[in-house]
Sequence to fold (323 residues):
Amino acid sequence: MQITSLGPFFQWCEGTILGQWVRGGTWEFPVIETIHILALAMLYGCTVVIGLRLMGVLMRGWTVARLTQEVTPYMNWSIVVILTSGTLLYLSEATKAFSNDAFWVKVWLLIAALIFHYTVVRRVTKADEVSQPTGLTVGLVSMLLWFGIGCAGRAIAFV
Amino acid sequence: MSSLFELCQWLNNTQTSTAIRESTLPFPFIEGAHLLGIGVSAGTIALTDLRLLGLGMKKDPASKVLGALLPVTIGGFVVVFITGALLFLAEAEKSYSNPWFRFKLVFLALAGLNALIFHTGIYRRMSQWDLDDLPPVRARLAGGLSLVIWAAVIWLGRQFAYSH
Fold:
């Protein structure tokens, strides 16, 4: 899963001013990580709300389209914050990340989740109602992808 | 030595505690589940708070928004408290003397108190402000405080992890 040829790029990342800044201090890393987790919470809140509605489990007082409209700004902003803070954390330990299997699992899952969200989920949630097989599948896959990213992220510290 | 410390020491020496602490797999899995639980509970709490602040989901009655989100929050809470208890059990002795952990408990209590004041107060008169774009000041205060307190809980939990 590791793209070996990116090694020099990862080394360059770690040497950037931003990477040095996050790595250098005592409070920077935990505070940026806290912001990362706060954004994760917002993202998970939105994902679960949309996912459970698609699955027909909860939030049935809203149509799929309207509920999605309500939470989409928060979802988009949390993705912006989570990618920014995540990049900063990555820059501070890029070479460690390079040889970490969990990091690569996280990257690939992230790419998959973003593509899935901005293509399939976006299209399916334009309708007021969704057929049960579609709703179940899309809702479940969406939640599992985002949950998988969180777990892989946590695993970076353990592998 | 306080008796609370002795209790933590005793917990720390139980078989379950040692098993989790020294395990290679269960500990990261419990941590992972703890994070997912945080995401689901804190995320839906944030959406609830935004409605109370008059910032989000304004087209719907507050009671409808709160009622629909609560089961999801509770689901997340169940996961986060069970896994949190297990993580504490595994490192009870270390946690006891850690100031970050103590502050985290204080803020958890504050979060509970804030929710209690809300539910026994302005929440009971919700029918009077259910459709208001801008909920009454006590509801906005509860929402704003909740956002700040839960963010602090998450921050303290992170600092705790880096302090030992």
